[in-house]
Amino acid sequence: MFDLKITGGTVVDGTGADRFIADVAVKDGKIVEVRRRSASDAPLAGDAAETIDATGKVVAPGFVDIHTHYDGQVSWDSLLEPSSNHGVTTIVTGNCGVGFAPVRPGSEQWLIELMEGVEDIPGSALTEGMTWGWESYPEYLDVIGKGNYAVDVGSQVAHGSVRAYAMGDRGARNEPATPDDIEAMGRLVREAIEAGALGFSTSRTLGHRAMDGEPVPGTFAAEDELFGLGRAMAAGGQAVFELAPQGVAGEDIIAPKKELEWMQRLGAEIDRPISFGLIQVDAAPDLWREQMDISAAAHAAGARLYPQIAARPFGMLFGFPGHHAFTHRPTFRKLKGELGREELAHRLADPAVKAAILGEDDLPPDPNKLFDNMNILVQYALGRIYHLGDPPDYEPTDERTVEKIAADRGEDPLATLYDLMLEADATNMLMLPFFNYSYGNCDAIHEMLTHPAGVVGLSDGGAHCGMICDASYPTFLLTHWARDRHRGAKLPLEHLIRKQTHDTAQLFGLSDRGVIQVGKKADLNVIDMDALRLHPPKMAYDLPAGGNRLVQGASGYTATIVSGTVTRRDGVDTGARPGRLVRGAR
């Protein structure tokens, strides 16, 4: 008797091979049979505790998201949304050089403020929600390893926490590391990999800063430190060296290719994958192609370089629930402080309130708050801020910019922005793409997605709570790139599923998942491609301490299955928690 049968589905198995009709049988958390058949053949024989009729639907492996920041959330939240409602069955945390282990007793708040500054996760939510109970990285894995989750959870050890633990204030302030410091950090990294960390991560971009404005520890690490930690990682076992390189955000257009030089040498020496963030920047809109070509050539020469690429324009969302142009207007500030969300939305729709807000000057920003000058950014970027609509259009034309809509209406652009944000009861969010949209289309992303050196990442699931919700990448890949794109070429569904299953799993050595084959882990999605839809992003207020975060739903997932157990049925959480900690490559 099988635990689960999925019958008559169109299997896209994650290998990139052509789709086929088949029945899939599951027992004890693994795939035990994949029986190809025609539509007229009888279903696979044998009883099952549950049978899912997948006729006319796609059956795919569960998605593996390798770039998330649920490091703190795993300690209080077993559901791990928004990733878990987009077909994701495995997540990897600990990216960008920030994490919560190791931690010296008494320095927990410093790590929280580091994470809050870099990843825009409300510090109050982390302070109230996190349970702690560890000091070393192995102890951290022991704690989260006791949890049962909706998805499997893998983790990387972060340079920022390692440096602060080993070097104290000198490490936190980015002072140079001595040979003894490097040896001490190396012991911590090796210990973490031996305990089950899937990788080591670091950040070298000046865009990543703690709440006090200090760059992430390790930002300016010299080559001897980077190579010392890379060697320690390799000595600990199979793992990935992950980084946000210098210049990744366009702050320096010379640095990225210089970074690739040492990455190639390190990758060749330690024979481990090096994965780095890669996005198109307006300051050098074709630099990404050079970086990818260098990576492909390095690959051929034996250095395993894997650029992590984003599936869509990479930027920020603006609207009344989050950052916007009017946050510093006195009338808005007063109303927000006095009213609940529903009443505030009602008052914002009052023409007199609108006129008052539009007619006021901004109050000065608070110099002690990161991102407190976003209002000015929005006001001067109306020619690049797009109305997304419903369903959201992430490849919009210039006609959808606030500036162009205002011109067509014969209105002041700020008044138009105000009205657009009022839509959907003042919950509407608009998009400002900082990256991957230099030419006003997604052609560069199309090329990145087809480049042999690229791997899909950078979703930042669980992070940038007030500005971004890119944990929905898996659904976007299927809706936009496989089905709906109209401004350029689409991509085959088989290719897109492989990119976020087999390829991401293999990068981190998770060869027990990512494909639909006998003996593999039964992490699966049953998807109604005709009904698959990405919902507009909305602000939720469900974090600890009343913290807010952007979430984005999806419909069209008939079932998501982790280790043979259905975790979501028709988009609804079943309450099952078969997800476990993933310790090390397998």
UniProtKB/TrEMBL annotation:
CDD domains: D-aminoacylase. It comes from the Bacteria. It holds the Pfam family Amidohydro_3. SUPFAM superfamilies: Composite domain of metallo-dependent hydrolases, Metallo-dependent hydrolases. One of its GO terms (molecular function) is hydrolase activity, acting on carbon-nitrogen (but not peptide) bonds, in cyclic amides. GO terms for cellular component: cytosol. Residues 50-567 form the Amidohydrolase domain. InterPro entries: Amidohydro_3, Metal-dep_hydrolase_composite, Metal_Hydrolase, Metallo-dep_Hydrolases_sf. This is Amidohydrolase. It comes from Mycolicibacterium aromaticivorans JS19b1 = JCM 16368.
